[in-house]
User: Which sequence fits this backbone?
């Protein structure tokens, strides 16, 4: 499967929102400091994003996804794929990896949407960020000295050993939680592409052996490229070192599970409205379908 097979149809970009995080102070988060602090912070959670660690959540993630798909099928068509499957699945997986209890997941989702949206204003954004930060500060504090494999346990252990500060741990936890939920946008954009190109979806159903390569290509063309992003200003001539998102393997795991569950489990899945009527989010740093109406 060639790259041209996937990339021949450009994704829609009905207006590009500026990313306004003026009210959200993420000092200490891994995406902001320069080396060596960046490396030190990355090291504190690296164990949660290894191939082995991500595989640890695969089977539980598969079961959670199967339950969501079954519920959607039981409710019958039409359905909003984003609301029924994509959003709750991405939220459940990142909370599982972070060590956030199931009872607190909806609150995490609400905070994340308020933080990344510019439509509510800086005051609301700042309050949501502080509330999420306070939550993670308490959770990390409870897990200092622990031996768990989830992100907050690793951060608590690193704080207990004096390798990072509590402020750094909280900033990193907030950024990872928000970034993890951004996988929703990947799922939404990926299935928008597949459902607007039924010949491609049919091929992936008929030739499951090409799915890994197809998923790679789909993810490559679905970066957060419809947003202005985080502005970086170099004060002097500098060399750029390589960077790999610690959540890359998690995003790929979610994509693999979604493609298998929805293409195989809902063989008649298709858009319930014309492609031009699919609403895309505005006022957020990523461009994902606000809703993805489907039928089968």
Assistant:
């Amino acid at each position: 499967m060639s790259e041209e097979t996937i990339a021949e149809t450009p994704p829609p970009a009905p207006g590009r929102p500026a990313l306004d995080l003026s009210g959200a102070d993420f000092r200490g988060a891994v995406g902001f400091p320069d080396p060596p602090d960046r490396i030190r912070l990355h090291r504190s959670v690296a164990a949660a994003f290894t191939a082995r660690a991500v595989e640890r959540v695969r089977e539980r993630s598969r079961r959670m996804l199967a339950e969501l798909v079954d519920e959607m099928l039981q409710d019958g068509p039409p359905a909003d794929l984003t609301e029924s499957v994509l959003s709750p699945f991405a939220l459940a997986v990142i909370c599982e990896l972070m060590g956030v209890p199931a009872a607190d997941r909806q609150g995490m989702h609400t905070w994340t949407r308020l933080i990344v949206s510019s439509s509510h204003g800086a005051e609301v954004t700042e309050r949501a960020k502080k509330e999420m930060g306070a939550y993670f500060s308490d959770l990390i504090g409870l897990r200092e000295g622990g031996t768990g494999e989830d992100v907050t346990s690793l951060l608590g252990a690193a704080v207990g050993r004096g390798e990072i500060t509590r402020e750094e741990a909280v900033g990193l936890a907030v950024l990872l939680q928000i970034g993890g939920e951004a996988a929703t946008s990947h799922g939404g954009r990926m299935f928008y592409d597949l459902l607007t190109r039924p010949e491609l979806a049919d091929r992936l159903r008929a030739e499951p052996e090409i799915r890994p390569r197809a998923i790679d290509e789909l993810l490559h063309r679905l970066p957060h490229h419809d947003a202005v992003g985080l502005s970086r200003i170099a004060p002097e001539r500098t060399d750029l070192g390589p960077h790999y998102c610690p959540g890359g393997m998690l995003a790929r795991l979610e994509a693999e599970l979604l493609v298998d569950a929805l293409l195989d489990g809902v063989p008649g899945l298709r858009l319930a409205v014309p492609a031009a009527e699919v609403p895309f989010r505005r006022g957020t740093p990523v461009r994902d379908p606000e809703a993805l109406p489907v039928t089968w």
